[in-house]
Amino acid sequence: MNINGNTVVVEKSAEEVFTFFTDLKNFEGIMPENIQKFEVDGESFIFGLPGMPEIRLVLKEKTEFSNITLGAASSKLPFTLAADIKEISENKTEVKLDFAGDFNPMMAMMIKKPLTKFVDTLTENIGKL
């Protein structure tokens, strides 16, 4: 199951956006307002939203100034959330989030709508940086 977020333009350089994403504490600022838990632990963070189990994301991959990929810490729900960063000009950068998960059809049907809303909220909040 893939969810492609909208592309947003941020009034920052690609280096600034990349640096923002590599500091996992910053993810708390782009989470939905109703977040119930957020804790950073080294190269991972855990967050909780109402009606969903807590999720731990681990920093899986980073390509300087162009991509940050987070992945699920648990193999029970394998997925990645990638932020693609593309510099437009010195102080203007495009950011696009892509979610990719390997779920059975029943699970995918149940979580597609809330996950799409989650990705949309993250994208909207990134646009406010």
Give the topology, please.
Layout: E1 2-10, H1 14-22, E2 37-41, E3 44-48, E4 55-63, E5 67-72, E6 79-89, E7 92-101, H2 105-126
Antiparallel strand pairs: 1-7, 2-3, 3-4, 4-5, 5-6, 6-7
Output the structural class.
alpha+beta
Q: Strands of the largest sheet, in order across it?
A: 1-7-6-5-4-3-2
Strand content bin: 35-45%
Radius of gyration using CA atoms only: 14 Å
Number of strands: 7
First-residue to last-residue Cα separation: 28 Å
Question: Element order, helices and strands?
Answer: EHEEEEEEH
Low-confidence stretches: none
What does this structure look like?
The protein is of the alpha+beta class and about 130 residues long. The chain contains 2 helices and 7 strands. It has helices at about 15-20, 105-125; strands at about 1-10, 35-40, 45-50, 55-65, 65-70, 80-90, 90-100. Strands 1-7-6-5-4-3-2 form a 7-stranded antiparallel sheet, with helices on one face. The longest helix has 22 residues, at about 105-125. It is globular. The two termini are about 30 Å apart. The model has no long low-confidence stretch (mean pLDDT about 95).
Question: What's the short version?
Answer:
The protein has 129 residues and is α+β, with helices and mostly antiparallel strands.
Give the tags.
129 residues; alpha+beta; 7-stranded antiparallel sheet
